[in-house]
Amino acid sequence: MRSLPARRTRRSLVITAAAALLPMGTCSAQPPLSSPDSVQELNDIANTAVPRAHCDDSSLAETGLQGDVSAADRNSGRSTQGYSCNIVRLGGYAGRGGGITSTSFDHCAYMGSFFPGNLVGSTNGVQVVDVSDPANPVLTDTLTAPAMLAGTWESLKVNDARKLLVGIGVPALTGYGLIAVYDVSDCAHPVLLNPGPGTNLSMPVPLTGHEGGFSPDGRTYWSSGVVPGIVSAVDLTDPSQPHVIWQGMPGMSMHGMGLSADGNRMYLANNMGGMSVLDTSAVQRRDPNPQVPVLSQTTWTDGWATQHAIPVTYGGKPYVFAADEAGSGGVKLIDISDDSRPRVVNSIKLEINLVENRAPAIASSMGGSVFAYDSHYCAADRATDPTALACGWISSGIRVFDVRDPLHVREIAYYNPGARTGHNTELWNSPHALASIIGIPLLSTQSVMQALNQGQFDPRKALSSRSGDVAFGDLSSDWCMSPPEWHSSQLWVTCADNGFMTLQLPPDVYSPPVDQHSTVGS
């Protein structure tokens, strides 16, 4: 296990932050993309929750609304016990917190890093956890390339086909120039493949990063920046020489993505709330001077900060699951049979996300920082006819849904880990702990305004014993932002405060399909 001396750690903090502020370099870039012929805006608000899970006798069930961590439970300390339904925790490795999103490969997990907290202490960068024994995961390595030290935000992804792990350096919302490519053939001890471009600070790769993902064949890593919404295609044919082969701006603020199985379509999340469909076939073919047309743009007001998309098929018909990070939009099922006009055909929400529950949600989440009860990152158990979808639902924990019939989704299990109240100073790599100076759930503002406009927000119900906690908040619930990865009947999950955990689903709740292959879409 490698560690950095204190002097080198301080120096890394300075240089990685400085690298993020460098001006964009030159590359083969496409100018800002024009609007497609097909632009549609959806204004409907879905207001139905999926049926609750039927919990077994050993469960420690939620005490109120589905997905809520009540003010009473937070203040009494009940939330430190957590909530579980049809799930057993086998083991875990907390470390100093789990970053924003993490990933896994083979018998290993990679815990994302969060800048600057991950530079404090001895285990700097991305933490590598060996999960050969799910009951006793152990730290085996730390990844300390500049991109990993700078904070990986939502960029840390694995491509199984090529056994590659990639992370972009993102010190503060958007980063520039830093990319690390690792060989994870020995998953417990990844090997850095690009000591030059993207790692050598004098050789930045001209990209902006916040989130990213692979094409299915692993030859292209797509990086997206939030501000501005620049998307970059990074060629990894030779992983030691990552270089940008296309760059453009499909929108002002873009987020995560999903790629079709052939790599010819990108379903790109829009931070304003929505999804764009891009024709990426020219990049996939490696055409000279490739162009990436935007085939359609769909926006919605039911949720915003759309996070990512998971392309799937049901009976051969293509859909995507798209999660909204804010605004209580939940997870949408979108029919993409017609590239030019995607259709939202179903929504997955919890009771705490409904319009009439906006006030109780504010009452309980006040003091818990900027995020509250929103979906974030999901994983389907396979891309073809998926049977289950597991999502990190921020303060609502890990939620597991039966999606065999995508138009009639039901919840089958959940696990919301025990709050680590009072442990802020131990969790330097937790964005929740570092952001807890802010107590107001700011990203719920849009949904509160919608409830007000519909006359369904009673300010009296928004008041609780926590109402004055507008600053210096607490850790009375966790933030589960990372995609829960399917490993047979287990879920490998990482939450901001509790770190990495292995969870077991019983056979009467979930039976893994023989061709199970966990997918987050990119």
Tell me what the structure shows:
This protein is mostly beta strands and 522 residues long. Helix content is 10%, strand content 32%. The chain contains 7 helices and 32 strands. It has helices at 6-20, 71-76, 146-149, 281-285, 358-365, 431-435, 445-453, and strands at residues 39-42, 83-85, 88-93, 103-105, 108-111, 126-130, 138-143, 157-159, 164-168, 175-177, 179-183, 191-192, 205-209, 211-214, 220-224, 231-235, 243-248, 254-259, 265-270, 274-279, 294-300, 304-314, 317-326, 331-335, 343-348, 377-380, 388-392, 398-402, 410-416, 485-487, 490-495, 499-504. The strands form 8 sheets. A 5-stranded mixed β-sheet has the order 1-21-20-19-18, with no helix packed on it. A hairpin with a 7-residue loop joins strand 11 and strand 12 (191-192). The longest helix is centred in the N-terminal third of the chain and has 15 residues, at 6-20. The two termini are 29 Å apart. Mean pLDDT is 93; it is low at 1-28.
Strand order of the largest sheet: 1-21-20-19-18
**How many distinct beta strands?**
32
* Low-pLDDT segments: 1-28
Mean pLDDT: 93
For the sheet with most strands, the description reads: 5 strands, mixed
Which strand-content bin applies to the residues?
Answer: 25-35%
**Helix share, percent:** under 10%
Termini separation comes to 29 Å
User: For the CA atoms, what is the radius of gyration?
Assistant: 21 Å
Number of H/I helices: 7
Dominant shape:
globular
Judged by helices, strands and strand pairing, the structural class is mainly beta
